[in-house]
Amino acid sequence: MSDRRMPTDIQRALRNAGLSRRGFLRVGGGGLAGAAFLGVSGCGVFGSEEEGSTDSEAPETMNRNLGAEIDDLDSATATDEISFEVLYNTMEGLYRLDPSEEPQPAQAEGVEVSEDELVYTFRLRDGITWSNGDLVTSRHFKFAWLRAMDPKVASQYSFILAEFVKGGAEYNAGKGSRDQVAIETPDDRTLQVTLVGPTPFFLGLTAFTTYLPQNEEFVGQQAADYAKGAANLLFNGPYKMTRYSPASGGTLEKNDRYWDKTNVDIERINMRIVKDTNTALTLYQSGEIDLTGLTGEQVPRFEDSPELFRTVNFTHFFGQMNQGNPAMANLNIRKALMTGFDRKLLTDRVLNDGSEPAYAFVPPGMEGPEGQTFREANGDLVEPDPAAARGLWEQGVRELGKAPKIVMLFSDSSTARDIATFIQAEYQKHLGIRADIDITTFENALDRVNNRDYQISFASGWGADYNDPMTFMQYFTSGSGFNRAGWSNDRYDKLVGGARKEPNNAKRMAMMLEAEKILFEEAVLVPEYFEAVVGLKKPYLKNFVSHPYGPEPDWKYARLDKQ
Amino acid sequence: MLRYTVKRLLNAVVILFVIITITWLLMQFLPGSPFNDQRLTEQARAQLEAKYGLNEPLLVQYTTYLWNVIQGDLGNSYFLNGRPVTAIILDRLPVSAFLGLQGIVAGTIGGIALGAISAMRHNTVWDRLSTLVSVLGISVPIFVLAPLLQYWIAFKWGLLPIAFFESWAHSVLPSLVLGIYVAAVVATYTRTEMLEVLNQDYVTLARSKGLGGFHVMTRHVLRNSMVPLITIIVPLAAALLTGTLVIERVFAIPGIGEQFVRSITVNDYSMIVGTTILFSIFFVTAYLVQDLLYGVVDPRIRVAGTRSG
After folding, report:
1. Distance CA B98, CA B281 (A)
2. A487 half-sphere exposure, CB direction, 13 A CA radius
3. CB pair distance less than 8 Å for A228 and B297
4. Angle CA(A470)–CA(A101)–CA(A459) in degrees, nearest 5?
5. What is the DSSP string of B71-138?
6. Are A198 and A117 in contact (CB under 8 A)?
7. CB-CB under 8 Å, B267 with A7
8. Do A274 and B267 touch (CB under 8 A)?
9. Which of A24, A159, A450 sits opposite B296 (nearest CB)?
């Protein structure tokens, strides 16, 4: 019976609605009043109602534009640079990079390295704690590292541990067991790691996000909620996060439990997300943001500004040639494409953002033999001589019997489009050929390169994970999971493989220097440019440290001098 | 009326099912996969696919997904640390809906006023002025209008916040941009319709009976011009409530429109289908509301079954 009544109620309501048709215009008035009410009451939609939101005008607050969402604050699975920045500033590994990229003791007070450079015994600082007061122990490092290598956790960055820690690769591949990974914790302050081979850059690696510790008990309690919000995380770094919304950013506050808090100056960092580069610039000019990135188009307006900053990263954008393709299998064709355009024109006229032309594989500034950078030691490896390219092309065509059609794969960003038309015009001019441009989404381009469904791809680059040429040299080894050029060379593999096992740094550098030369004798890649990060920062933001690789910027060193 | 509504609701469920199925199938043809990082080795990719069940046969994946949707679980995002899709939507939708609602209401009222003035002062300066405004409102794209108003109103004159979404004041400028577009569309339709109604015999009759100009306009002319307006406003409202990419980007607003576009570019499958389901619900509901509103405005367009109720 009662369920018959409901419908009549609805009917009455509908009939009433029918009655109100006389005053249909009033609905509009009602709607406006409703909207005004929503506006006044806030309706819970406005960001300022989130807990821990802060006054961005405060003199001790720095406002930073991240430019994209904070996707994942679980250090075991994080992959994007935004999450890396937050993690690096709120947590701390055994070592931390100083402003000149030298690893310095951080959560560890020091390390003992065995004679054969395989066993690292770290000693943690006394009394270091998490933001909830728990002691940071060596178990927390072991737990986090094993978690990142756990095949079920499926971390994309697991390789950065598994490649180096003995037993790691096997465990990560599902072939070995957890117990066989050579990480020992004899006591709460001692962590002993055995490596696969001598790794002179290992201390620098321990600063990387995947190497950050995690509080085992806390992660266990949080289970699926871990890292989903500011309250679902613990911090042991210079800052703690008090507000975290993937969509609108977060707030970092100075961590008063951090062991080196006296050297942390900025009280609060307000991390905003502005994706539109023009809006970001307007906000910067109005003073609402203290630091923001610039696009190549925006740079000329600020060329002479003292607020402009620029870092050339250890990131190389290069073309890779699929040697499974008959035309790309020809050495002279590859050499012609490698030398057939003017890189200086590309960086000066097309990119115009401070990026540097690339005449080799390993970026300038990376570690090299004693007293030199790798680049200084090996110099330029590709002749900046597009004019000679035509002869190479014609030679290649004779060898192939006919001129091959060249199709260049690009991603669909506006920069990529500019580069595409530039290289096309250069090839036309210097080689006399009309190369086709194939533009697709970045995701699809990566997929096609993975599936070897391409001829020559300019869709991506490679950035260093650590400050050693090995992060680049391993790319083209035969067994490498990253080598999608299908190029294989015994001598190269032997040199790079040898460098992985060589404890003497001078010798291993010599091997890598020689290996890099092979890449250019064989014309394996088409170097384009070393990417620069350009931005504006207010003059009152001092000691800004942005490393050319890995997580950056490091806000621990920055100072704020707002009057 | 009730029977009609129930029938429409059942219809809506079928439509939703078809939409889910088609979207899900189309997604299988999307180039690329959610896991496409350059650093992703074959091994890591296999681990990720196993973690998210992407290594299962398609039929298993589809039925699992459908079963979960029936239980109200739209799955987890492949990005954002595996957050539930429903949580992400609930986080972002209210923001877009608030902006859209405010824009629609203000725009409709403004548009009707503009159109009415135009029609009543037909062929005068007022008419030309309001026509010019509405033509500009329709033809100047939002991605031009939004930065322009942002630059002058917020940055140069400092009247409103430049960006972000932290108080009601922050919502005014983006809603205004939306509202201008809505007003322009509404004004054009209102003007055309009113001019047509003005020539009807019953208007002449009402006037000859000595009814006042304002009375004739509001009671007879305007109301009878409403039908085509509902036809355009309702779908427009559904579109605006679900967020606009451009507005959300320019004003750095964490809304659902921006999230949806991002999920497509990164192949976040569960996010794409989840948001599509949500948008479909909005549109299906909007059309239902539209049909009911027709009856309210014009008794001649009563939907079938109304009288029996």
Report:
1. 17
2. 28
3. no
4. 50
5. TT---B-SSGGG-BHHHHHHHHHHHHHHHHHHHHHHHHHHHHHHHHHHHHTTTSHHHHHHHHHHHHHH
6. yes
7. no
8. no
9. A24
Mutant choice from B38, B90, B215, B250 vs A, greatest count of A C-beta within 10 A? B38
Contact A71, A246 (CB under 8 A): yes
> Rounded distance, CA A333 to CA B48, Å?
38
Report which of B166, B35, B173 is spatially closest to residue A245, judged by C-alpha positions. B166
Query: A30: which 2 tokens?
Result: 């009602």
Task: Give the pLDDT score at A419.
Answer: 95
d(CA A106, CA A74): 20
- Is residue B299 within 8 A of residue B19, CB to CB? The reply is no
- Cβ contact B267–A443 (<8 Å): yes
Mutate to test the interface with B, among A443, A451, A458, A472 (most CBs of B within 10 A): A443
- For residue B44, the distance in angstroms to the closest alpha carbon of chain A comes to 6
For chain A, the residue count is 563
Contact A136, A213 (CB under 8 A): yes
SS3 B225: coil
B290's tokens: 């539209």
Which residue in chain A is spatially nearest to B37 when comparing CA positions? A446
Query: d(Cα A209, Cα A95) in Å, to the nearest integer?
Result: 11
- Taking one residue from A and the other from B, the number of pairs with CB-CB distance under 8 angstroms is 190
**Given the structure tokens 């992959």, which residue do they identify?**
A79
pTM to 2 decimal places: 0.89
| Angle CA B231–B236–B241, to nearest 5 | 140
- HEC string for A212-251: CCCCHHHHHHHHHHCCCCHHHCCCCCCEEEEEEECCCEEE
Backbone angles phi and psi of A308, in degrees to 5: -75, 130
Nearest to A160 by CA among A221, A79, A219: A79
pLDDT tens string B213-242: 777 877 788 878 888 888 888 888 888 888
Of B43, B106, B150, the CB nearest to A173: B43
Tokens matching residue B194: 């009113």
Residues of A in contact with B47 (CB under 8 A): 151-152, 154
pLDDT number for residue A99: 94
Asked whether residue A479 carries a pLDDT value surpassing 90, the answer given is: no
Tell me the two tokens of residue A173. Answer: 């591949």
Instruction: For residue A356, count CB atoms less than 10 angstroms from its CB and return exposed for 0-12, middle for 13-18, buried for 19 or more.
Output: middle
The answer to whether residues A55 and B166 touch, using CB atoms and an 8 Å cutoff, is no
* Residue in the structure block whose two tokens are 């999230």: B259
pLDDT at B270 over 80: yes
Instruction: Read off the pLDDT of residues A11-45 as tens digits, 9 standing for 90 and up.
Output: 444 344 443 434 434 444 455 555 555 555 555 67
Take residue B30 and report the two structure tokens written for it: 């999307």
Residue corresponding to tokens 């919502």? B171
Q: Which residues on B lie below 8 Å from A228 (Cβ)?
A: 81, 83
Tokens standing for B88? 């992400």
Among A5, A279, A292, most B C-beta atoms within 10 A, so best to mutate, is A279
Which residue is closest to A32 within chain B, CA to CA?
B105
Cβ neighbours for B192, distance < 8 A, ≥ 6 positions apart: none
Cross-chain residue pair A446–B167, CB shorter than 8 Å: no
> What are the phi and psi torsion angles at A536 (to 5°)?
-120, 140
What is the rounded distance in angstroms from the CA atom of residue A211 to the CA atom of residue A148?
Answer: 9
